[in-house]
Amino acid sequence: MKNLLIAIPAYNEADILEKNILKLYNFCLKNIKDYNWKIIISDNNSQDKTLEIAKKLSKKHKEIKYIHQEDRPKSLSLQKTFLKFNSNLYMYMDADLSTDIKHIPEFLKEIENYDIIIGSRIVKARNLKREIISKGLLLILKLFFSSNIKDFQCGFKIINKKVRDNIIPKMKALRHGFMDTEMLLVALNKGYKVKEIPVKWKDERKSKVQVFKDILDTSKNILRIKKDLIFGKY
Question: What is the value of pTM for the model shown?
Answer without folding.
Answer: 0.91
